[in-house]
Amino acid sequence: xxxxxxxxxxxxxxxxxxxxxxxxxxxxxxxxxxxxxxxxxxxxxxxxxxxxxxxxxxxxxxxxxxxxxxxxxxxxxxxxxxxxxxxxxxxxxxxxxxxxxxxxxxxxxxxxxxxxxxxxxxxxxxxxxxxx
Length: 132
Prior knowledge:
There is one protein chain. By secondary structure, the chain is an all-alpha fold. The chain has four helices and no strands. The chain has helices spanning about 15-45, 50-75, 75-100, 105-125. The protein has one domain (about 15-125). Helix 1 packs antiparallel against helix 2 (about 50-75) and helix 1 (about 15-45) packs across helix 3.
């Protein structure tokens, strides 16, 4: 009789880690880009620094995306983070194609960096200490 009144554990959707990771990743990317834009404006740096800042913002966002997804999923951090990196870059590729900013190899470099940083974030997320 004792087990009759126990609550059932809610089953988490497979998309939950990715959705939470995407939200956290895009938020981190926007914050990093805003801080970088402020720093570039204050220091009066050349326009080439804006491209570097954009790549760094995307890398930071995909790392946070993978880390959040890995922490929520709790297992398969490398795979979860890499998938999160792919999901993170897809809207950015679509926007780049719409606005015609696809010249050179930077699109492939950004894609590889997003997948790599997402995978690293997933590993860090899975191995993170659980919050107490």
